[in-house]
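User: My instructor asked us to take a sequence, write out its structure as tokens, and then describe one feature of it. I'm not sure where to start. Here is the sequence I was given:
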Amino acid sequence: MSNKVSVLVAGSWGTALASVLADNGKEVLLWSRNEQQVQEINETHTNTRFLPGVELSPLIVATNSLQQAVEDADAVVMVVPSAGMREVASQIRPHLKQDALLIHATKGFETGTLKRMTEVLIDELPEMDPARFVVLSGPSHAEEVIRKSPTTVVVAAQNLEAAEAAQDLLINSYFRVYTNPDVAGVEVGGALKNIIGLSAGLIDGLGFGDNAKAALITRGLAEITRLGTRMGANPLTFAGLAGIGDLIATCTSKHSRNWRAGYKLGQGFPLDAVLADMGMVVEGVKTTKNAHELSRRLEVTMPITDELFNVMFDGKSPKLAAQDLMGRVRTHEIEENAFDAATKWQG
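Assistant: Let's start with the prediction itself. The structure tokens for your sequence are:
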């Protein structure tokens, strides 16, 4: 593999991954539509809007030309918001090497189609081998990765060779990378954990305490597993970095924009005001709407998702939503088919 790696786009997570790649000796082309941001990265080696107070490696070169970014790159890392994945994939298609390794680190579903991001990439890049598409996920706040704090993530692909190529590209002394064959599970876990992160922030905003948040994380994991297995995932994936690992980081840290948005919702701020104040994409908002629709389409029970949907889009009081969750009909903790699903996936 050559030294040129392309990263799309220059948000906080894209910039952090670009920094990991630069630390691994790669020449990184970091793409942004914003000319002022491109100029700042190239002239001062900073990205103050997304990662203030951090100096970037001179090996990171920014560009606003997609062609320049991806042309001749043996690996392309896509950190595009879910709403823009199809558009950007379509735009890079004429310039992308057909044997390039394509890694995406986007956590969400496409609105409307409800497709996972690798499914969107398969639609828009038909000349490429889908087995070369890799998803990266796990507990990884950009604010910590950029400062070289120990971080562990997972990469998943249909083809083990592709997953290992992504692992070799990214792994270093502070950024440990595991492989996993369960593409659907890693994508679903990464998307749905943002719903639980929003809900955890809401609980903290209401001042409900640690007991409530621990219960939310645990039952949230059950909800993620329920939908994930229905979509073909291995339930054991959700016991790993893309499941419980990412849940812990998202639900307990102020670095999480989903937690911060949920906290403001819990304090009584309306959703529009919360999103305007954040100034960045909060993937969990769209994911809540998409997962709410998916649960109905696939006939999967998701009470936490349903109540968060009611709070954000139907004007329901957060306190009333919590009361309704606590007042649900009694049931078993362990899903009857959980172990059968794990055995079936492995078999």
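For the description part of your assignment, you could build on this observation: Residues 226 and 337 are 10 Å apart (CA to CA). Try explaining in your own words what that tells you about the chain.
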